[in-house]
Amino acid sequence: MSDTPLLQIQGITKAFGSVQALDDVDLEVRPGEVVAIVGDNGAGKSTLVKCIAGTHTADSGRILFEGQEVHIHGPKDAGRLGIEVVYQDLALCDNLDVVQNMYLGRELNRGQILSEAPMEQHTTETLKSLAVTTIKSVRQTVATLSGGQRQSVAVARAVMWNSKLVVLDEPTAALGVAQTEQVLALVRRLGQQGLGVILISHNLHDVFETADRIAVLRLGRNVGVFERLKTTQQAVVEAITAGKPTKVAGIPSAAPAGAGA
Amino acid sequence: MTSAEVVGPDRAPPLEEEQLPGGFRGAMERARLNLRTGNLGALPIIVGEIAVVILFGFTATNFFTSVNFVNLITESAGTAMLAYGVVFVLLLGEIDLSIGYLAGIGALIVAELQLPGSSWQMNGILAMLVAVAACAVIGGVQGSIVAFVGVPSFVVTLGGFLIWQGVILNKLQQRGTIIIQDRWINYTDAYIFSPTFGWLIAAIFTALYPGSVLYRKIVARGTQIAQQSWTSATLKTIGIGIAAFGTVAVANHGKIIETPEGLPLAGLIVVFFFVVLTFLAKWTTFGRHVYAVGGNAEAARRAGISVPRIRVLVFMISGATAGVGGIIFAAQVNSVALTFPPGNLLLNAIAAAVIGGVSLFGGRGEVRGALLGAILIGTLQNGLNTLNISNGWIYIVTGLVLLGAVTLDTVAVRLQARSGR
Question: Tens digits of per-residue pLDDT, A179-205?
């Protein structure tokens, strides 16, 4: 793991009308690290992801990417930095095949004419490098794939673009046991390949299977960051349900990472 | 002008393809597999067309003649042109109800622009270009209301339907009929190619498909990319060749009194647009994005595709093809009259695309479907006409065929889903 954090979020605040979705939230992700963000419904997980992806602009606070302050105003900006988000509902086109989905919106072409061969070749290689072996043909339409395979395609698509940070929003929400294992293994491999990974999840089992660190949000505030190896599910659950904010507005917390609630 | 099955490059190869033996035996086994799993492609409609031709060939005395065959081509040409536009609009999951009267507007514009003695009279070719461009712009305006304001396309184009009908009424109620004298405009329907030129066109058209297969094989050289087998490519090429050369052979055979018949220009126009639009849909980034937006607009948007831009462009294509179709229809009668567009043009065009396997819900279908559907509808209506059957029955039969085709397609899709394809 490198010392410069890949992504640093400092004091992000976001309100929707009178609802304070995020209140002075910090987060740090280093290369090769899987950071899970957990929290109950309405804790602000999705809002935080949308601020990183550029779908929302934070009201205040700073986002640093590789040590540089950045302003992300949309998926294109995020993509240019090397941030890819895999949404819960996947955003694949069922009527297109695997290759077409992998290159959706970024097709290789000469003039306007599609270069199918390199796209197909590269798709096959990417899937192989991620050990996604269950897909028989990259020319199958996505409609014919299982939930786990679709999730794998969505993740592979995010990885293919020299991305540095991959954000996964509830990647196992709709999957069965075996498929969940498939996807979690894939998430771990992303970390091993040196990417930063943010994993949003409700499922603590998944989180403890994959994450290096676990950041807990409650009612839009940080309530603790746990090292996976030094904590228990019990402690995390307590933080999710009854955690106290780790910092008073504006003043960085004195509690070191891992102290928890 | 019948085109045999041209399987698009986008179709996923069967899962078991790798395990199947190569050569002719492999091709047969693959065909059987496709049949079992409901992956029928264009087969039902081609079989249907052959059945209809045989049926009318035996029952109607004037049907199976060269002259009628050429008529059939020119009659189907306009419908096929409109149906091409319908394919693109349906691929987005939208609908364009304005194309019937938009075709009328296209015809009206050429008729006005070629008017001898008027201050704006221009060359017929230029007039046609202006008319098609104007129809594209109108389509684009309608598409913009759909794309940027978010009004459902059904409503926008229903408005267009009424507006353009009104414009045609206003224009022609005082004037009656505008006669088209410009020879270039009238050529779009009635120009007949010499037999040699007809053969040349058939040869070029037949060569396109194996050419595209060859191109893909060359590009994929040295990679492990799944390729189409030589056998299936050869069989399809033979099918296309029979259709193309057969069409020209029959057309060249005919004679009206002493004037020899041949391949009409309308046929070439339709084939030309078929090739261009198939290329656009299957080989270009734009075409890929059309399929993507039709399949999942939200996914397309997140992938960075400008969905409104695609929508506007597709409605422009729809307008432009309607304009071309309108000109061909006007050239058929050398005039534009209040009776334009000819009976049920809009519904025939949509029916043609749907019979050709284009889904109403977006994302599924191919340009060839419009051509095959238009030919089937054209053959049916032409055959029933030569049998002197009343218009009422012609509508009923067309309706039943539409219903049958869509039912078959729905069953096939369900079969495919069940077999996990």
Answer: 888 888 888 988 888 899 999 988 888
pTM confidence score: 0.85
Please state, in angstroms and rounded to a whole number, the distance separating the CA atoms of residues A228 and A212: 5
- The count of structural domains within chain B is 1
From chain A, the residues in CB contact with B296 under 8 A are 91-95
> CA geometry: angle at B50 spanning B48 and B55, to 5°?
95
Q: Does some domain include residue B400?
A: yes
Are A139 and B12 in contact (CB < 8 Å)?
A: yes
Q: Please, what are the averages of pLDDT over each run of 10 residues along chain B (421 residues)?
A: 39 42 64 65 83 86 83 91 97 95 95 86 92 97 96 96 94 88 86 88 91 85 72 88 89 73 89 95 95 93 90 97 95 88 87 91 91 93 88 89 85 70 48
Nearest CA distance, B18 vs chain A (angstrom): 9
Average pLDDT over chain A, rounded to an integer = 84
Classified by CATH at the fold level, domain A7-242 comes out as Rossmann fold (3.40.50)
The b-or-e profile of B343-382 (16+ CB within 10 A means b, else e) is: ebbbbbbbbbbbbbbbbeebbbbbbbbbbbbbbbbbbbbb
Residue at B376 is within a domain: yes
Domain-embedded: residue B110: yes
What distance in Å separates the CA atoms of residue B33 and residue B35, rounded to the nearest whole number?
5
Give domain status of residue B180, yes or no. Answer: yes
Domain with residue B341: its CATH number is 1.10.3470
Cβ-Cβ contacts under 8 Å, B17 against chain A: 137
CA distance B91 to chain A (A): 11
Q: Which of residues 164-193 of B touch A (CB under 8 A)?
A: none
